[in-house]
Fold:
Amino acid sequence: MPEVWLRGPIAGVLPALMPVAHSLLQVREELEAAVPPLSRDQLWARPGGAASIGFHLKHLAGSLDRLSTYARGESLTAAQLACLDNEEQIGLEDAAQLLHHAVTQIDRALTQTIATPASRLDEPRTVGRAALRSTVLGLLFHAAEHAQRHAGQIATTIRIVKPQQREGTAF
Structure:
């Protein structure tokens, strides 16, 4: 099957946001196909000092949530800031739970993308404590490409910590 972006338009998505929707769907498909059951050691391994699969799954979900919040013109909540501070901490979740959380956040970001009217794409938004400037379109696009970046890092780390997964993965 071709990559999502080669499958054509997605019903209900603005042409200007089609790359965002394609990217989010591609990330979801790749994660669901590639994240195998992992032992706790494999989930949190840091080969060569690289970030762990657990971190990447938590960060992918958290960054989508935060960037979506900024795109709506809202400030981060105390709970979102606590999640940010906790992304590098080894938690009680297993790989399946972290994958489920990431997929849930991808779906929420996709829903928000589809619901965003063209008239709002150029609206200014601020990001972070420094209130750096962006737009709704800039935030939605960055959320999608940032998720792709972490999906790629997850795929690479899986190949290192669980080499037998090389065959048959989406990567």
About this structure: The CA atoms of residues 17 and 107 lie 15 Å apart.
